[in-house]
Amino acid sequence: MAPGPGLPASLALCRPRAPAAPDDRARHCAVPGTVLLLLAYLAYLALGTGVFWVLESPAARDSSARFQREKWALLQNFTCLDGPALDSLIRGIVQAYQSGDIVLGNTTSMGRWELVGSFFFSVSTVTTIGYGNLSPHTMAARLFCIFFALVGIPLNLVVLNRLGHLMQQGVHHCARSLGGAWQDPAKARWLAGSGALLSGLLLFLLLPPLLFCHMEGWSYVESFYFAFITLSTVGFGDYVIGMDPSRRYPLWYKNTVSLWILFGMAWLALIIKLILSLLETPGRSYSCYHHSSKENFKPQSWRQSPDGEAEPRLPQSGCCPEGPVRIMQHPEPSTQVSCCGKGN
Amino acid sequence: MGALRPWARFPLLVVGHLLALGIGAAVFQALEGPPALRLQAKLRTELATFQAEYGACLPPGALEELLGTALAAQVRGVSSWGDGSEAGNWDLPSALLFTASILTTTGYGCMAPLSAGGKAFCVLYAALGLPASLALLAALRRCLLPLLSRPGAWVAAYWRPAPARAALLRAAGLGLLVAGAFVLLPALVLWGVQGDCSLLEAIYFCFSSLSTIGLGDLLPGHGRGLHPVLYHLGQLALLGGGTLPWAVVWE
């Protein structure tokens, strides 16, 4: 679709053209691309896991062993510890902890630079959650972390974008089938949208805390707090799953949590994008539906927002089956309509 | 006429953003200061009783237990020794840093809410504040996009590369700009100001802040008075400006 010279022309472009043909083609093309992308994503995470594991675990083991030796030497020399000595011991231990040494003997596999720990570190880096329960200390690992993140974060954004788009497609299909049954497409779309919102809320924010309650022994409030902080990628690190050495975690638990993070982040990004588009001042809203009618949950109008582009942490607008939304510069720069352009 | 409106909206958005940050910081300070002090006091009394009981001899199990408690408190951001020089963990600059770390989703973790009320407020604050900061970013990008594309247009006029090449060159140029201005420069400043970290560590910290990963293992020193506030403000500008080129590159 070539960009029109002025507003009315672009308005005409936005009318539904031939929804059937791009639909099918898009649907066929989207799925293998998505699978490939997911595979690439997994491979990239595996790469990060391996490298961090190799770089960090020898150093961690050495420093941990060294600390244990020092500690027991101290205790042997001073069988009666006085106040200042104890203080300095605690200070030393806390500093060692802050610099990442394993202080007390018991940690779970999540707290060590082994396979699971390294994998979770890669995930937390690439999704920019960044818990901090494990952090690299060797210079090589830090350098690698920087470059790993430089490539991994955009990759993660692309994957989230795809996932979000697939979820939107699913909702849209439901809306269309409902609309067909009820002869009221707008209402069906609204219903499907709110249903998707509620089910996403349940699935990603309200139900997983129950799992964490059961597995980690946190209260529901703490688990919900952890879920929210994780999905919003803030990731303080005061609560991290799988860190309690006195508990046994089944194998499927951590895999499920990784999947939850992925899908939950995609869903949350969609929601934030919706809220964002609601926050933007309406300007002049046209009742212009997108050419492939794959719009988000707002059925009433396509808001003419000067910025239809998504934020770096958000998936791209789901209007295009493939390719990002292009912001087209019209002669009046204040009015930019975001339309899909396959050939810009 | 229409072109004025984004420019008028933008300062309002910035002011509102700063106000929200300040209010959030004050609320967190009010919510979190007392529990943190209480935890600190509890830790100190435990330490005192420990010293009184085991002043003579030290069974290893008791020591491990005490250390575990100290570390658990440390994870929550409460330091277990306090000669009172650090005036509580939740003084204003630290609280500001905390709210900024929420809104930019960095989340260092050196400070985290302890009380249930603090956690609930944190969730609410993030739920409302994240879309707002994204709106701010969008406004920023809208304003700065023409500025940023001008050098690109100049280059394109000079060399006339193919369109795909042009996009790539522009992305590369912006990437270099980001790396230079937002990572290297602050890292150099940090390295100069703080003597005890190497340049690589400073770069690592700037990068982990800019990418909003925020591991939190390296942080600029606390006891320097105004510095954390200045650095925080600089970091906010960093993050706001730094994600911009990403968005443009993404396009």
TrEMBL record, chain A:
<feature type="domain" description="Potassium channel">
    <location>
        <begin position="209"/>
        <end position="279"/>
    </location>
</feature>
<feature type="domain" description="Potassium channel">
    <location>
        <begin position="108"/>
        <end position="168"/>
    </location>
</feature>
<feature type="transmembrane region" description="Helical">
    <location>
        <begin position="141"/>
        <end position="160"/>
    </location>
</feature>
<keyword id="KW-0631">Potassium channel</keyword>
<feature type="transmembrane region" description="Helical">
    <location>
        <begin position="224"/>
        <end position="242"/>
    </location>
</feature>
<feature type="transmembrane region" description="Helical">
    <location>
        <begin position="35"/>
        <end position="55"/>
    </location>
</feature>
<keyword id="KW-0630">Potassium</keyword>
<comment type="similarity">
    <text>Belongs to the two pore domain potassium channel (TC 1.A.1.8) family.</text>
</comment>
<keyword id="KW-0813">Transport</keyword>
<dbReference type="InterPro" id="IPR003092">
    <property type="entry name" value="2pore_dom_K_chnl_TASK"/>
</dbReference>
<keyword id="KW-0633">Potassium transport</keyword>
<feature type="transmembrane region" description="Helical">
    <location>
        <begin position="190"/>
        <end position="212"/>
    </location>
</feature>
<protein>
    <recommendedName>
        <fullName>Potassium channel subfamily K member</fullName>
    </recommendedName>
</protein>
<keyword id="KW-0812">Transmembrane</keyword>
<dbReference type="InterPro" id="IPR013099">
    <property type="entry name" value="K_chnl_dom"/>
</dbReference>
<keyword id="KW-0406">Ion transport</keyword>
<keyword id="KW-0407">Ion channel</keyword>
<feature type="transmembrane region" description="Helical">
    <location>
        <begin position="257"/>
        <end position="276"/>
    </location>
</feature>
<dbReference type="InterPro" id="IPR003280">
    <property type="entry name" value="2pore_dom_K_chnl"/>
</dbReference>
<dbReference type="Pfam" id="PF07885">
    <property type="entry name" value="Ion_trans_2"/>
</dbReference>
<feature type="region of interest" description="Disordered">
    <location>
        <begin position="296"/>
        <end position="321"/>
    </location>
</feature>
<keyword id="KW-1133">Transmembrane helix</keyword>
From TrEMBL, chain B:
<keyword id="KW-0630">Potassium</keyword>
<comment type="similarity">
    <text>Belongs to the two pore domain potassium channel (TC 1.A.1.8) family.</text>
</comment>
<keyword id="KW-0813">Transport</keyword>
<feature type="domain" description="Potassium channel">
    <location>
        <begin position="193"/>
        <end position="221"/>
    </location>
</feature>
<keyword id="KW-0812">Transmembrane</keyword>
<keyword id="KW-0407">Ion channel</keyword>
<feature type="transmembrane region" description="Helical">
    <location>
        <begin position="121"/>
        <end position="140"/>
    </location>
</feature>
<feature type="transmembrane region" description="Helical">
    <location>
        <begin position="202"/>
        <end position="223"/>
    </location>
</feature>
<keyword id="KW-0406">Ion transport</keyword>
<dbReference type="InterPro" id="IPR003280">
    <property type="entry name" value="2pore_dom_K_chnl"/>
</dbReference>
<dbReference type="InterPro" id="IPR013099">
    <property type="entry name" value="K_chnl_dom"/>
</dbReference>
<feature type="transmembrane region" description="Helical">
    <location>
        <begin position="167"/>
        <end position="190"/>
    </location>
</feature>
<dbReference type="Pfam" id="PF07885">
    <property type="entry name" value="Ion_trans_2"/>
</dbReference>
<protein>
    <submittedName>
        <fullName>Potassium two pore domain channel subfamily K member 7</fullName>
    </submittedName>
</protein>
<feature type="transmembrane region" description="Helical">
    <location>
        <begin position="95"/>
        <end position="114"/>
    </location>
</feature>
<keyword id="KW-1133">Transmembrane helix</keyword>
<feature type="domain" description="Potassium channel">
    <location>
        <begin position="87"/>
        <end position="143"/>
    </location>
</feature>
<feature type="transmembrane region" description="Helical">
    <location>
        <begin position="229"/>
        <end position="250"/>
    </location>
</feature>
<keyword id="KW-0472">Membrane</keyword>
